[in-house]
Design a protein that fits this description.
With 486 residues, the protein is an all-beta fold. The chain has no helices and 40 strands.
């Protein structure tokens, strides 16, 4: 048999509402009956030619229509049926009259009871109607409350779960029973800001001559600022922008032995600022600037000695001359001052002679220094450079002695008048021999039986004697010089 094509369209008719019916409300029932020689595939209702409700694929063919979505007056309801072959039939139209009450008149829209996380939206309508609020951070809203179908004229809807310090857009919706839904215009409110941070436990620690650390806590995350200065006007500040509850800010570049006023400030993410009261702390005394050895230079059997390496303006240069002949006339370079002249092994007329000279280095020092010595004696020169010395009066006290013929020469004891003096001991053996530094002393040079040692003395008072040991017994001199710090 040849293949037969289904060309017979379905039959369809609207069974409800009836022709000429008056309808209203949001749930008008639409019904239809449909049949086909093979089978009905689907039925779609239409109002004024526009689809209403879902496409129905099995009986009963029934849906609801919100008549408030069209204007009051005459409208045509129809149904379109389709079969599996694609044949379609649209029923005759049924004319109905829509008669909905007018939408409520909304007025007095506003928000009240605004907190950090909630608000109440209120409004009135001229007739009893339902309540709903749409809201969100933009005019797209995004969130809505459930429809409260209770018919009232005074409406109040609570909103919760909001974010603090945030602007919200909102609009309200109200529908009277069997009537259209009225929608207000757009409104805004801003949720409350949280309380400003609460500052507590403000403390200072790690106070030094030039710095301190200020710490405190806040009950909410906030930034970190310390204002500080010599008065309660402050003038300086330090801080960081990170939001934390435990705050720590280091202050640096402060002056020693100085009282500082300070206060702390914290601002949260909403711009809420809290400031502490005025507080003070006092920096510690500056650590003493003590003399320090820089470098040394020496010459054996010569009267010219090189400037110690690294010598800078303000350094103290301390020269020791061993002159193996007496009497001999010694003249120092320009700017040098002699502070000791010790005759060894028998005094005047003996063959041994030790002198100590000093000067403060200027901005431009020569590369070497020359002493003029009468005759042609053997001369050794040891030259020490010290930094951080007192520029007005660098020599606190000095002394020297003929230590006799021995292997353990001992300096005189002197009494210092300043704290943190650098005590320098200078030994000469007019014979050959090697040296061992005394207890607590640091060797600075050792050449041709000349020895220089030093040690810091923290407190003023007697230095005690300083002793060195030589491997060979011989005529000795021992000098001691105390240098003041800056």
């Amino acid at each position: 048999k040849p293949l037969q094509t289904d060309t017979t369209p379905p039959a369809v008719s609207v069974t409800a509402p009836g022709a000429g019916a008056t309808v209203s409300g949001t749930t008008v029932v639409l019904s239809a009956s449909a049949s086909d020689n093979v089978g009905v595939a689907s039925v779609q209702f239409q109002v004024d030619g526009s689809s209403v409700g879902p496409r129905l694929t099995s009986p009963p063919y029934q849906t609801t229509w919100d008549s408030t979505q069209v204007s009051n007056g005459s409208h045509v309801v129809s149904a379109q049926a389709s079969d599996g072959a694609g044949n379609t039939t649209t029923s005759s139209g049924v004319s109905v009259t829509v008669s909905n009450a007018p939408p409520p008149v909304i007025s007095g829209v506003g928000a009240s009871g605004i907190t950090q996380t909630g608000a109440t939206v209120g409004w009135t309508t001229d007739v009893g109607s339902s309540s709903q609020v749409e809201y969100g951070p933009t005019v797209s809203y995004g969130t809505s409350t459930a429809v409260d179908s209770t018919s009232v004229t005074a409406h109040a809807v609570g909103l919760s779960g909001l974010s603090a310090g945030t602007q919200y857009h909102y609009r309200v919706r109200s529908g009277a029973p069997g009537g259209a839904v009225a929608v207000s215009g757009d409104f805004t409110f801003t949720t409350a800001l949280p309380a400003a941070p609460v500052i507590s436990n403000v403390q200072t620690s790690g106070i030094s001559a030039s710095g301190a650390v200020v710490t405190w806590t806040t009950d909410t995350a906030s930034d970190t600022t310390v204002q500080y200065g010599l008065t309660a006007s402050y003038g300086s500040s330090a801080g960081s922008s990170g939001l934390v509850t435990s705050h720590s800010q280091a202050l640096s570049g402060l002056s020693a032995s100085t009282q500082y006023h300070y206060r702390v400030q914290s601002k949260d993410g909403f711009g809420q600022v809290s400031v502490s009261g005025d507080l003070t702390f006092t920096t510690t005394n500056a650590p003493p600037v003590v003399p320090a050895f820089r470098s040394a230079s020496t010459v054996t059997n010569g009267t010219t000695v090189s400037k110690p390496s690294g010598t800078a303006a303000g350094d103290l240069l301390l020269a020791t001359l061993e002159v193996d002949e007496d009497p001999a006339t010694v003249t120092g370079p320009a700017g040098w001052t002699r502070i000791q002249d010790t005759l060894g092994a028998g005094g005047t007329g003996s063959a041994y002679h030790t002198q100590v000279w000093w000067k403060l280095a200027g901005a431009s020092e020569p590369a070497s220094y020359t002493w003029t010595v009468s005759g042609a004696p053997w001369v050794d020169i040891g030259l020490l450079a010290y930094t951080n010395v007192n520029q007005a009066n660098p020599i606190d006290v000095s002394a020297g002695r003929d230590a006799g013929t021995t292997t353990t020469p001992t300096t005189p004891a002197v009494t210092t008048t300043a704290a943190n003096d650098m005590v320098v001991a200078l030994f000469v053996n007019f014979e050959s021999g090697s040296w061992t530094a005394g207890s607590g002393m640091t060797r600075r040079y050792n050449f041709d039986s000349n020895e220089a040692q030093d040690a810091l003395q923290a407190t003023p008072g007697s230095t005690g004697t300083k002793t060195a040991t030589n491997s060979s017994s011989g005529p000795m001199t021992a000098e001691i010089v105390a240098l003041r710090g800056s």
